[in-house]
DNA sequence: TTTCCAGTTGACTGATTGGTCAACTTGTGG
DNA sequence: CCACAAGTTGACCAATCAGTCAACTGGAAA
């Protein structure tokens, strides 16, 4: 076959990039095709609609992110270090995006979900699925932390939701203020919520800095 | 004059309602006009563009919300009760919206900000202004709580930001999951973040129930 | 060699988009 | 009574929107 399906891949990558930087409503099928170097016929050969392309692009974006999360939340890493490492990863990714695009773009999943959850049920469900997956990393880290006696006994699943709510909130705040530094508050917020005192948390951070 | 400018008011009210339920991108000037019972010429008589209408609608929506917040955060109310009362107000408003529209719509300000902050600078700035105003209520409540010795000494301004990030996050989570009950987690999250133990917080809640 | 088909192309559609405009209505102040 | 201005109206615009389609391409299987 022609380009070994890399047209489809380019459409997915371009779509999530543009939607992340702008919004679903502001990005037309035409400009996605143009930036991806594809014709509209190809677009509709691979995807039945703009909405379906978006669902697929969300999944693709997740698959790109997953290896980084798997590494950060590896059982090899001490549980509380996974969380602080994640906070740094979030900052790092937003920083890179800002360097490229000139603005704090926030979380692509979250922005899409916020824009379309009341209108497009398929995208809402996909967003919910991604949210679940991301919370699983947090929940696992919390369970391990409890088992090792690092944090008080608690409901790790609902706590993971709580923490992730904060992640979404902080990222949104940073986007609204167009200020990366707001993301720096994420780590202390999260550690306070799971009941780790300032000093202990500081110790963890120092440990992480050494490694 | 004709309708004493109530056309302008209807345009503002209709706009924020539709955008809240759907999104900026999904709501056209035509449908705003239709639902408001106005012609397009009237729309552009009052507002130079869709973007300007939206900025004005945000301000209008704020003016509608403000009396409720002023009442809830009145110096007459004990500081921690203001916060728990606010959490209940949030739940109540989302519950009403869901009854009317059938879906959890989240926060109108936040949804607009999330969709447009990277694209429309005027809307971004307006969103940031609203965020500031809302945080002021939190900050004042926290300062009073510190003064009364109800919570530990802390930086109330940045703590207010932190709390409000959680509010935005929880509301977004509730919208994505289309589940009101997630908002119930907001109160304990907030009280944990300001360093109020579960029992003390429970006591505050009981006090509030009596009044 | 022929068949087959995933992928490509560009022209096309009808509906909708945000926005314009000149003519009109109507209450008010002089 | 007139003039003025705020507000209204409906026709109109070019551009863009998501989506369609028949014809074409080229490599692989038979």
How would you characterize the overall build of this protein?
Two copies of one chain form a homodimer. By secondary structure, the first copy, chain A, is an all-alpha fold. Chain A has helices at 6-21, 29-36, 40-46, 50-72, 79-101, 108-116, 121-147, 156-177, 186-193, 198-210. The first copy, chain A, contains ten helices and no strands. Chain A starts with 5 loop residues before the first helix and ends with a helix. Chains A and B meet through helix 6, helix 7, helix 8 and helix 9 of A and helix 6, helix 7, helix 8 and helix 9 of B. The structure holds a DNA duplex (30 and 30 nucleotides).
What's the total number of strands of chain A? 0
Order of helical and strand elements of chain A: HHHHHHHHHH
Q: If helices are DSSP runs of H or I spanning 4 or more residues, what is the number of helices of chain A?
A: 10
Helical content class of chain A: over 70%
Reported for the largest beta sheet of chain A, the result is:
none
Ranges of chain A where pLDDT stays below 50 over 5 or more residues in a row are 202-211
Mean pLDDT of chain A: 93
Question: Which chains have the largest interface?
Answer: A-B, 45 and 45 residues
The percent range for strand residues of chain A is: under 5%
